Task: structure prediction
Amino acid sequence: MTIYDISKKAGVSIATVSRVLNGSENVRPSTRKKVMDVIDKYDYTPNAFARGMGLHSLKTIGILCADSSDLFLAKAVYFLEQELQANGYESLLCCTGYNPDIKKNYLNLILSKKVDSIILVGSHFIGFNEDENQYIKDVSTQVPIMLLNASFDHPNVYSTLCDDYGTMFEAATEMIQSGITDILYLYDSKSYSGLKKLHGFCDAMKEYNIPGFEKLIHFYDGNIEHLNEVADFVARIATKGTSFHGIMTSDDSLAIGSIKYAQKKGIRIPEELSVMGYNNSMLTNCCTPELTSVDNRLETLTHQLVQTLLGVLAGEEMPKKSIFSGKIIKRGTTLF
Amino acid sequence: MTIYDISKKAGVSIATVSRVLNGSENVRPSTRKKVMDVIDKYDYTPNAFARGMGLHSLKTIGILCADSSDLFLAKAVYFLEQELQANGYESLLCCTGYNPDIKKNYLNLILSKKVDSIILVGSHFIGFNEDENQYIKDVSTQVPIMLLNASFDHPNVYSTLCDDYGTMFEAATEMIQSGITDILYLYDSKSYSGLKKLHGFCDAMKEYNIPGFEKLIHFYDGNIEHLNEVADFVARIATKGTSFHGIMTSDDSLAIGSIKYAQKKGIRIPEELSVMGYNNSMLTNCCTPELTSVDNRLETLTHQLVQTLLGVLAGEEMPKKSIFSGKIIKRGTTLF
DNA sequence: CTGAAAGCGCTAACAA
DNA sequence: TTGTTAGCGCTTTCAG
Result:
């Protein structure tokens, strides 16, 4: 069924059908009805490709994320889709995995679908030297690029993020003030936001002149979904003689793994060990006691991102960077 | 940058550029190189829409799921994307929510993008009367429809699923044989697979002539991510005087909520109460003791689905229905 | 208010 | 091996 079929059946020209389809004012109501009836009768949907060949917007936003099964990313994607849909935009999701080359390919691929903008979800898309980010610069000449929880300073690139540095700084400060200074810091990602968190932690430790805190910083290289492996990882660190009475992590999963470690060893939480997660995911209340965690206001972030995006697409001047503070959600695994 | 620009700069016709682009054999290597150099130099990507206007496949599969932040669905989508990508297909994801009308609209929308097939993830897309499924029949005339964890008998519709009925029957049988007959059954979805599980449970109870088991079947209407509310829900049931020594659920979240209930009440698991989840998600080892759950072999299902799909697209005769058995993963919340 | 006709960028016959 | 050309289905001037 094409616009030609419809025009023939309705006894009008394709231009008129096109006008009806696009809600043009310049159609006599009776003509409009005649056309609409045919359209409804045959359940006709215009071909998006032929449509896309024209110049204008297809009202579609490309969303790229590394892994849609990651709890945090999945939620982010979910909120973005909802928000975009509420504003009349469709979204097109691609999961790129963590390989940089593949990421770049996907970016071009999604661009070729004539999206109005591309949202990069998570900070895995930002590298640490100019070269790595060239591909973003290239694409930004064509459509606005929106970064969720990452930051990159470049024309036509807009960042919306949680201040992971400051929030982690604050969280660490709170733990230190509760009397715990030997804090194990576990992280699983060296992405932009992963390192921000790490620096926030380090700076808080430095602020309080805690000696040798660097030795308690450990990078976990495995799959964070395998909680028992995380527990073993913590056990191995403990076995090496390092003692700690607090654990802070870059992700809730690592914290849950830490709790499992404590339970296996009969260490009481929070009396003997304080644990704090990050992301405030649904995992926080799966365990006992429930996990204190940092909420990075994901829903606020996604909302703001879409608002900024809509503004940019409407040609308004919008903030290049929107930063929110996270907040600590106190539950049962910490003393404060 | 269009194919015309490239052809001009390379000093060939657009047909030759097109051939190079599409990997045709009939191009002299030197010509190919000449064209490729120009393409690379200008970082040219062909316009997918103009391309899509042709008749042939765009090597794109549409994936529809109700909610991409649901643990089970997110994993399914993830596996599907990986599998499709490995076979040279792109995927286009839409999250429809649970509203039937919106689902239908999305189906048409995704179809208009000239996808080669549509995968419906989860059984929420199948209704229980003919009318509700008319929209699937309609679309199935245009492209093959693949169902993941749902079943619908219709030409050009292929189902790949876990035998939730049989698996739940088996699981319930196992619990009964471990000596527990007063089993609380919690479920949160009345979808195709949700009801299959329920029936499997009921039939096992009937098989063993357990009287009054129906009174212990409860539908949970809230958000299953809110584990504490699930716990309260179970507590309310217990307060009403119904006693039970086993809990089986249609989803791990409900089981975790049940464990929270037990912990709050000081009920020991599994000594005083056996709990069994479903889906074998990452939640199963967040809690203590770890949750016995049913693995529905999601990765196997997605793999099989994509294999079937590839066969169908290649014009081969493929099974209309592929059914796998789930398996019980025994952990610490049950006696057996 | 409506219709005719010129593209949009590409693919795929068909010719050469 | 390469070029020419007719569509693909739609939007959008431009006439009427």
Notes: Residues 2-4, 14-15, 17-18, 21-22, 46-47, 49-56 of chain B lie near DNA strand C (CB under 10 Å from a C1'). The domain at 58-161+298-326 of chain B is CATH 3.40.50.2300 (Rossmann fold).
